[in-house]
Amino acid sequence: MENAQLIGLSRQTALRNQLDVVANNMANINTTGYKSQRLLFEEYLMPVAEATEFQTPDHSLSYVLDYQSITDFDTGAFKSTGNDLDLAIEGDGFFVVQMGDGSEAYTRDGAFSLDATGQLVTADGRPVLTTGGPLTISREDGAVEIAKDGTISTEQGIRGKIRVVTFEDPQALQKNGDNLFRGENPGIPQKVGIMQGALERSNVQGVYEVTQLIEITRAYESVSKMLKNVNDLRQQAIQTLGKLEA
Q: What ranges make up the beta strands (E) of the chain?
């Protein structure tokens, strides 16, 4: 395959991966606490050949390489819900969720509720952890009030404190699906700001994502046209050379 086709193919592959990222962002534009993704690109230089005996050295070919996706952890807008168990974190930090195997995962989605046993859980039914572990609230507890520092109080007194953690390098977190992250060595934030009766919206910017979608589509079409022209020129050359007499 010719070099021009290989370079064009590398660009098309990167564009398709970028399209997947943009499509996923748009699909989660209304997902509570969702953090948008970005794809990073770099130029990958590779020589034409290894030959060194020519007077004119080989020229490096410039390929496109999508080497990493990053997460935009900017805080999304807050919306008031009036639900006492809906929580939003002001600033950095993550709620801690207990997984089925007992391990921990982290999320910005504070749409919590009580399950049939009165345990505080996420929308997917996973226990939300306080500094003392999972929390169960009974009918006798009455109304629930959650202070800005995460302290949970009812008519029966203080019941616990919502656990919030931070990470030195949030980009090291791994996505775990269901709007959850996995990470090592969580730390305790110096200052916690929890807003009761509110949720954090997705930080996806719809206008920006639509603009990206248009640019990706146009770029893909441009590369496709270039590859078609290269293929047409090669076919024309083969046909012309085939008509020459030996």
A: 37-47, 60-71, 78-80, 87-90, 94-98, 104-107, 113-114, 120-121, 129-130, 133-134, 145-146, 151-154, 157-161, 164-165, 174-177, 180-182, 193-196, 198-200
